[in-house]
Amino acid sequence: MMVKPALQFIQGTDELTIPDVKLTRSRDGTNGMALFSFDQPSVFDSSGEVGEITGLYMIDEEGVIQSTDVNARFVNGKPEGIVAKHVMRTPKEWDRFMRFMERYSDQNGLQFVKKQ
């Protein structure tokens, strides 16, 4: 069964805002980190109605990758954005994350730009 790749802050509710994603990886390739930055995410429009933000869930046909390192950014007391960090501690976790990102990128028209 094909599952549409999606990001969710509240399980069962897809996030409609496409994030900026920054990747870092150790020189030896054993670990890495992904930093997701969402400006005006759609979850702010509905979080009171459907539940609380409990993490960042990356969902695809292989299953769910979860990160609980999620922080809201506020300006003048109003939510402006969300920053989520996902740490990958093994090459296997890195490969799994990259497979998810490839599917998510294809679905949402994202492209990878390598730092100069």
Automatic annotation (TrEMBL):
Query: Which InterPro entries does the UniProt record give?
Result: Psb28_c1_sf, PSII_Psb28_class-1
What kind of membrane protein is this, topologically?
Peripheral membrane protein
- An example Gene Ontology biological process: photosynthesis
**Keywords for the protein's UniProt record, in alphabetical order:** Chloroplast, Membrane, Photosynthesis, Photosystem II, Plastid, Thylakoid
Localization terms from the record: Plastid, Chloroplast thylakoid membrane
Q: Which GO terms describe its cellular component?
A: chloroplast thylakoid membrane; photosystem II oxygen evolving complex
Family, according to the entry, reads as follows: Belongs to the Psb28 family.
Complexes and interactors: Part of the photosystem II complex.
Matching NCBIfam families, A to Z? PS_II_psb28
Q: What is this protein called?
A: Photosystem II reaction center Psb28 protein
Organism encoding this protein = Arabis alpina (Alpine rock-cress)
